[in-house]
Design a protein that fits this description.
Elements (H helix, E strand, L loop, with lengths): L21 H7 L9 H19 L7 H6 L33 H8 L10 H14 L14 H7 L6 H14 L13 H8 L7 H8 L7 H8 L7 H6 L2 H25 L20 H4 L22 H11 L3 H15 L9 H17 L1 H9 L4 H4 L1 H5 L8 H14 L4 H11 L1 H5 L4 H5 L7 H12 L4 H9 L3
Helix pairs in contact: 7-20, 10-12, 12-14, 12-15, 14-15, 16-17, 16-21, 20-24, 21-24
Length: about 475
């Protein structure tokens, strides 16, 4: 399948007031409150607005049958033929009228955050070239392209076309994004993640069983991490309690502990029977993002040994709890990410993270030799400034709503692309780095995420990466 580069939607103008804004308009007509009631009023308005939006978006958006049937491979390769669709039986369990997307909803969906940070001249040039290349090029046609992302997830593939539905969903995630409120909340996002991650269905009782086992061997480490998770993010602290984070991490620790015990007992079992080693599904290719034609990169064979709890998993778990509608959903998605997408990040001495850091240096040297040499001359390698960004898939950099949007992209085309996203952030801030006599101070804290800009630059960088380096990126976390 040959596609063109997805266009990056610009920041749309604010849409006209809708029914969801009527409550705010009505409130503005009331007599002004006293200074002491401003905070309470803002809290009431926020809750009322979020409640109205949630009610207008409806209830459950995906049937478990469809969630199990839509498969994906987490590590995209560039010229591999899609694997044949697995046979599956689906049963429609969600009834209701067709979901339509109005022009106003599309404007709200495509509306991005204002980018007040100055962009380097190189970035302006890159965006201008990208815009020129996209001029006059129509969007690729997919079998489910006429449906909204919500319809694809809710209703499942038409006529058993799982591959077409999955490719359509991936493209819509990149081209249109997942509809959400300004604080990143969405009734759809967690189900999109579960489908893109190919997370298995997990009964709630299984999660509760892990909780009822009590403290895991890693409980002390978990309690030492949870209280400092995203402490400066008011959105996260308001929605996710520390107790919820402790339960999720403790359940994950038990699951990883059980896998290690099983591995010790087996001690010689073939790699193909290890958990997470079997993962065949339709694979997204680099051409689906860049429109190019390049040789394929293959995944490494053999299943890795089970991992264990490591410091930093608390930050990696935070977006799942924020986006999910239950701890069970967050657990299923988080466990799949750890054991299937990046098991080397939590195994041994976190070898996958260190391989990823070495690749950040290598890709930066290819994309921007001047910036790379400047950092090298200052003794700054990615090991020094990019470790948290690699380990947490950039979740350590605020704001959280932008993290969620970036994760939509990473889960659609492979979390390994986080390596390229980090390089994209470095090129965005290159002017500030090059002008600083002490760039370590600049790199100590990355600027706030702008997911749309990072995605656009990342897609441009992918075209410049040699095949062998891209192949290393694909498998570095396995």
């Amino acid at each position: 399948m040959t596609t063109t580069s997805p266009s990056r939607e610009g920041t749309a103008a604010a849409p006209p007031p809708t029914a969801n804004h009527s409550s705010l308009i009505h409130t503005d007509l009331q007599p002004p409150p006293s200074p002491r009631t401003h905070r309470a009023l803002r809290r009431l308005q926020s809750a009322h607005t979020l409640g109205a939006k949630a009610a207008s978006q409806g209830g459950s958006l995906i049937s478990p049958h469809y969630r199990d049937a839509l498969h994906r491979n987490a590590s995209p390769v560039r010229n591999a033929a899609p694997a044949p669709a697995a046979a599956a039986t689906t049963t429609t369990t969600v009834a209701g009228p067709p979901v339509t997307t109005t022009t106003q909803q599309k404007q709200q969906q495509n509306r991005g955050r204002a980018n007040s940070d100055a962009i380097s001249p190189m970035m302006h040039q890159m965006n201008a070239v990208g815009a020129t290349r996209r001029t006059g090029i129509s969007k690729p046609v997919f079998s489910h392209g006429h449906l909204s992302l919500q319809q694809i997830i809710r209703e499942g593939p038409k006529d058993g076309d799982f591959i077409g539905a999955l490719e359509s969903a991936r493209w819509k995630v990149v081209d249109e994004g997942v509809k959400s409120a300004e604080d990143g909340m969405s009734t759809l996002r967690i189900y999109v993640w579960l489908v893109l991650l190919d997370a298995p269905i997990m009964p709630t009782d299984d999660y509760l069983g892990l909780i009822h086992r009590g403290a895991s061997p890693a409980y002390a480490k978990i309690r030492n991490d949870t209280f400092r998770t995203l402490t400066t993010d008011p959105l996260f602290r308001r929605r996710v309690s520390e107790a919820s984070l402790i339960r999720l991490l403790n359940a994950i620790a038990w699951k990883l502990h059980d896998a290690r015990e099983e591995e010790r007992r087996a001690n010689g079992t073939s790699a193909s029977s290890r958990p997470g080693s079997s993962h065949s599904a339709a694979r997204p290719t680099r051409e689906s993002l860049t429109g190019g034609s390049m040789s394929g990169a293959s995944r490494g064979g053999g299943g890795p040994e089970p991992g264990t709890y490591v410091q930093g998993m608390n930050v990696l778990a935070a977006p799942f709890l924020y986006a999910a509608r239950s701890e069970g959903e967050a657990f299923a998605a988080f466990h799949t990410l750890l054991t299937r997408e990046c098991p080397a990040y939590i195994r041994g001495a976190m070898t996958g993270v260190h391989r990823g850091l070495a690749l950040v240096d290598k890709v930066l040297a290819i994309v921007d030799p001047r910036l790379s040499m400047y950092l090298t001359a200052k003794g700054l390698s990615a090991e020094i400034y990019a470790f948290p960004s690699v380990l947490t898939l950039c979740a350590c950099t605020p704001p959280l709503p932008e993290v969620l949007k970036l994760w939509d992209f990473l889960f659609a085309y492979g979390p390994h692309l986080n390596i390229v996203c980090i390089v994209a952030q470095l090129t965005i801030m290159r002017s500030q780095i090059l002008q600083s006599p002490s760039p370590n101070k600049v790199l100590r804290s990355f600027p706030p995420l702008n997911a749309d800009l990072i995605k656009s630059v990342t897609i441009g960088i992918i075209k410049q990466i040699p095949d062998d380096v891209y192949a290393d990126i694909v498998v570095h976390a396995q």
